[in-house]
Amino acid sequence: PEHFQWRIRNLPYPPEVYNVSVDHEKQEIIVRTSNKKYYKRIQLPDLARLGLKMQDSMLSWKHQHSTLIISYLRPAEVTQAEQKVLKEAEKSALKM
């Protein structure tokens, strides 16, 4: 997959109410509503593990059918690290 994606269901407010942003200090995605009814911090441990910083330009979101869909573009470094781990797992599985 080319994105990390989260779906938050049962959020019936109109799209103008939502504010989805990156907290650069804590390296988390923040979801909040202007009517103070919802607040959530989302961590991305895959980026932290590789020492990568979150960027605002890689974050996107949309609201449809009472569901907020948040997407963060997966950096190439994360994809490469996942492929490396999968190859190592396959090699160790073949040795058994």
Describe the protein in words:
- With about 100 residues, the protein is an alpha+beta fold.
- About 25% of the residues lie in helices and about 40% in strands.
- The protein has two helices and six strands, in the order E-E-E-E-H-E-E-H.
- The strands form two sheets. Strands 1-6-5 form a three-stranded antiparallel β-sheet, with no helix packed on it. Strands 2-3-4 form a three-stranded antiparallel β-sheet, with no helix packed on it.
- The protein is elongated, with a radius of gyration of 17 Å.
- The two termini are about 30 Å apart.
Architecture blueprint of SSEs:
Layout: E1 3-9, E2 18-23, E3 28-33, E4 39-43, H1 45-50, E5 59-64, E6 67-73, H2 76-95
Antiparallel strand pairs: 1-6, 2-3, 3-4, 5-6
Short description:
By secondary structure, the chain is an alpha+beta fold. Helix content is 27%, strand content 39%. β5 and β6 form a beta hairpin.
- Structural category: alpha+beta
Overall pLDDT level = 94
Query: Can you list the strand order of the major beta sheet?
Result: 1-6-5
Sheet of most strands:
3 strands, antiparallel
Principal-axis shape equals elongated
How many DSSP E strands?
6
Distance between the termini: 29 Å
Number of alpha- plus pi-helical segments: 2
Helix content: 25-40%
| SSE run | EEEEHEEH
> Hey, roughly how much beta strand do the residues contain?
35-45%
Low-confidence stretches: none
Our Rg estimate from Cα atoms comes to 17 Å
